[in-house]
Amino acid sequence: MITSRRALIAMAAAAMAGAMMPQASFAQDKKTLAFVVNVPADFWQIARRGTEKAQKELPKYNIEFYIPGEMSAAAQKRILEDLLAKGVSGVSISPVNPDNSTDILNQVASKAALFTQDADAPKSNRLLYIGTDNVAAGRQAGEQMMKALPNGGKAMVFVGTMDAANARERLQGIKEVIAGSKIEIIDVRTDGGDQAKAKANVEDTLTKYPNIDLLVGLWAYNTPQIYNAVKAAGKESKVKIVGFDEDQQTLKGISEGVIDATVVQQPYEFGYQSMIYLAKYLEGDKSFIPENKQKIIPTKVIDKSNVKDFAAEVRELLKK
Amino acid sequence: MSDTLLELRSITKTYPGVKALRGVNLSVKKGEVVGLIGENGAGKSTLMKILGGVVSPSSGSIVIDGVSRLELTVKDAAHAGIAFVHQELNLFENLDVASNIYIGREPRKGGFLNLIDNAALHERVKPILMQLGVDFTPEDSVEELSIAQRQMVEIAKALSMESRIIIMDEPTSSLTLTETENLLRVIADLKAAGVSIIYISHRLSEVQQCADRVVVLRDGRQVGELAKDEITHGAMVRLMIGRDLKSIYVPPNVGVRPGGLELHDLVTTAFPERKVSLHVRRGEILGLAGLVGAGRTSLAQTIFGVEPAPSGRILLDGERLTIGSPRDAIAHGIYLAPEDRKKSGLLLDMSIAENITLPDLKRFSTAMLIDVSREEGVAKEQLRALAIKAPSIATEAVTLSGGNQQKVVLAKWLSMRPKLIILDEPTRGIDVGAKSEIYALMRDLADAGVAILMISSDMEEVIGVSDRIAVMHEGDISGQLERPQFSEHNILTLAVGNPSKEELVAYA
Amino acid sequence: MLKKELGLLILILVIGALTAAINPQFVSQVNLMNLANQIGLFGLISIGVGLVIITGGIELSVGSMFALLGIFFLDMLVNHEIVWPLALVVAILGGVALGGIHGLLVTRLKMQPFVVTLCGLLLYRGIARWYTADSTQGFGYGDSYETLEWLMSGRTYNIPHTFIFLLIVATIMGVVLHRSVYGRYLFAVGKNEEAARFSGIPTKAVITGAYVIAGTLAGLSSVFFVFYTQSVSPSAHGNFYELYAIAAAVLGGCSLRGGEGSIIGIVLGTVLLQVLQNLVNMLGIPSSLNFAVMGAVILLGVLADQQLQRRRQRQLAMASAEARNLAKEGAAGAAV
């Protein structure tokens, strides 16, 4: 009974595995380059377009894109182990937990070319980091906050969790800029990634601090939830909003004038440049690696002046 | 035989508002079987709880091996060699026999790893099982054992603890006749080996058979003690209820009427190779006797639609029925008072009223909403009609005595114009007084034209209540008896599967 | 039975009073209406899950249902431009269908509710993510759906529609659970399925019905949530919401063993959970402590309830002894 049940499960598992195996991975004659992200998000859809462009330019390589089921170092580790088992040549990864993933990252670095992107792991043997300088991005946001509140005021910050490096760095950048100004950050409210909770946090803040001047969303979904809550409370004209990333609603909010500005990264470039440079490295060219092993893709400020063009660009990239 | 192991002296136990025991004396000598009888609520369980160290007496003393003390702890009781074989068996079905016998006392090995020494365990259990002469091994899983076999496991457990006094509480309530015989034989063997037994039972013939002495309790008092030669059925009943019990058979006032339930070649899932044909007429009580496992309960559940019949025909008043679920059976006026009241007959946490109206709730509702006043009206009516003793119809069923619980089960069906009522072990665990009330109720129903099929393993009940008896053996009806043929001998002959007519003796 | 709900209400009032004493804005109209909105959003599904719990089952897949049905609803509305009443009905019917499947798997194929709905949790989340290729689905730049938006997230006399819907649904379900034949059957089945079947109750239909109701309410709430968050990110939308629903039901007196619970209790359980979340923000308690506050209060609430239950059991035992005494004395007259 037990054995037959086990056999049944094994058969089912085998059948599933067969059905879901990406066909491309069987093409062993080509070298494989892998782009590993941290969590499912629109942001990475744009990066995927970048890797797709790179694939067109690199016909000799087989480029694969990996999205872990949930945001955990464990899920990422499993992907990396599978990649090593398959014999991958180059990996560009956004590590979920860089400080504690050194072992597995070095294991990858010993067998393949390893880049980090989006989030750096400076303690590992990665060859290059391609990505945003989040502290710099925070400074840009800080400048927009100063611009929105030239006479100072009270601000509240919203984010998923503060244990993420990008959240800490962005906040650090903001604080550097506003230090000494009359802008005061009252508190940081976290939501653990739950969007409904993110919106409730904003609603509660608007209630608790009826005279709040500025709301800042550090993660991509925070800004649209700020926008929704502020509109629902009818406080569009009273509260300033500065955010990060390029969610549809964020861009809509900017064109309506409800949101002052957002600082956007260029994930397209993460995807494209990672793959192109990995291929170069594998072909023996190491000249592009700078002394500090960091290749910073600058962040851009989107405000009412340039939102129309940018929105069109994003829509084009996200088109299926 | 003179050395007294245990003596209880003028034990009194008072609960708030209730005097459970009032100055009870009980002594047990080495190698003696003491029968302890009394109606439910007479104080037997409280007395036994005191012996087990679960309850402390309010006053009195307990003398063990000449040492007197005021109370026992559970540990003291075990240390004194007192063991219980409970009415509700306390075994782990997922473990084997040996593990159950030595649960909590397993022989160990492997030092700090604390592994169970299975070899030693089985070695220790074997001689005990041999002594009891059982037909299973230490390795058998308890799950696969019959209730009688499980009881033997409990007795083996008691012996493994070198118990000197084994208390058996209703040990035969779920046993068949042969299994009961076997248990009584084991009791005789234990007695010969010097083990003392306190035997608690409602089944007086068994007590009569095995006890050296009988102690009778009534309302917390010790109302009498019978020496071996004084133990008779009549004497015991007289002491228990304080009056004589008439012969329980009441003949029908109205004769048997046509119609009723007919089974033609009915197959049950329990015995797929057997075909059962049977006729229960309106106005009669048909007793269905047989050994436990003979297929009586399966037959009842098949008729009631719990386990729909794979083939065969069920006719009620000549009309063929298709019964795929209890719902279908109920729609046709076929009702079952199941064997296990607490598990399948009642919703213990619900009130009397809710239990009574459950099967016919739509009758008490308008537009699918329950009309509470109508519901309560019917419940009150039934409470009065059946003399259910409870503070109110809102009382939860769990607080009722067994007899009153059974009355609630019957009350459910009575307001729904029954055509056929199947009663599976209707009086198991019910005291003498409530029993006769239930018998009277059954007779009234029969007289009112209901066909009654009564499954019972209680010989007195089958013989005393039925108008006709059908006996089952391994899924077959092995024979049917008319009243003049009623006797334990005849029923047993058919129950063990001997249908030759010559064996049956007419009632003299 | 009512004592339990009363206890919960008192607990809510005490917590509310303490919070208001520290920060009077807690009882401001704006905050109360925000709170009502949250209660409305989470209350619907708590009622659904509560009914399933009363049958002795469990429903773990509601969070994933929100993601899947939310995605489908938005997809119909935005990408396929289906008229909103139809899209709304289809989303609700989707919930009905999923609930029905759960019910049939549990009753007909006799699978354990935990397993069935755990697989649902994984399956629906996975399908939602696969269908959208993990991208967030929003209303886009195109049309707005004013009528529907007003219906699902608007306010009347400043009372959020979500809350009004909850009151309507709670009233209906309260009558169904506590006054109707179906409700009585539901309790009976949850208490003792076998005895219920022996009483001729169509137990399978009753249990399936509870899953269907839960599915229906999940379908309805998924649309409410879409309008609350304005977009659905398939990997995160509704994560853990099944646990909020279960917590509310348990706080409200539903026993995971089945057969116990009330609509008022479930609604009050939801109120307490949302008050706790709100007070964390209103008192400026660090957000990180949010879950800890919730966990601690649920634990204490259930613990207190259990102590009360135990006292009740003792009283019951006394009543039982009395009833037996009564029986012995044969006081039949006192029976009525």
UniProtKB/TrEMBL annotation, chain A:
Signal peptide start and end residues: 1-27
UniProt record similarity statement: Belongs to the bacterial solute-binding protein 2 family.
Pfam family, one: Peripla_BP_4
Ranges where the Periplasmic binding protein domain occurs: 35-286
Annotated Gene Ontology cellular component terms: outer membrane-bounded periplasmic space
Superkingdom of the source species: Bacteria
UniProt organism field: Microvirga aerilata
UniProt subcellular location: Periplasm
PROSITE patterns attached to this UniProt entry: TAT
The name this protein goes by in its record: Sugar-binding protein
Gene Ontology MF annotations: carbohydrate binding
InterPro entries linked to this entry: Bact_Solute-Bind_Prot2, Peripla_BP_I, SBP_2_dom, TAT_signal
Keywords, alphabetical: Signal
From TrEMBL, chain B:
Pfam family, one: ABC_tran
Membrane topology: Peripheral membrane protein
Domain of life of the organism encoding this protein: Bacteria
Localization per Swiss-Prot or TrEMBL: Cell membrane
SMART domains (UniProt xref): AAA
Gene Ontology molecular function, alphabetical: ATP binding; ATP hydrolysis activity
Similarity comment: family membership: Belongs to the ABC transporter superfamily.
Protein name listed in UniProt: Sugar ABC transporter ATP-binding protein
Keywords attached to this entry: ATP-binding, Cell membrane, Membrane, Nucleotide-binding, Repeat, Sugar transport, Translocase, Transport
Residue span, ABC transporter domain: 6-244, 256-499
Primary localization: membrane
GO cellular component, one term: plasma membrane
Alphabetical list of InterPro entries matching this protein: AAA+_ATPase, ABC_carbohydrate_import_ATPase, ABC_transporter-like_ATP-bd, ABC_transporter-like_CS, P-loop_NTPase
UniProtKB/TrEMBL annotation, chain C:
Transmembrane feature ranges: 36-53, 84-106, 113-131, 159-177, 205-228, 286-304
Entry superkingdom: Bacteria
Location relative to the cell: Cell membrane
Keyword Membrane annotated: yes
Keyword Membrane: yes
GO molecular function: transmembrane transporter activity
Chief location: membrane
Database matches in InterPro entries: ABC_transp_permease
Keywords of this entry: Cell membrane, Membrane, Transmembrane, Transmembrane helix
Signal peptide stretch: none
Topological type in the membrane: Multi-pass membrane protein
GO cellular component: plasma membrane
Pfam name, any one: BPD_transp_2
Protein name: ABC transporter permease
Native species: Microvirga aerilata
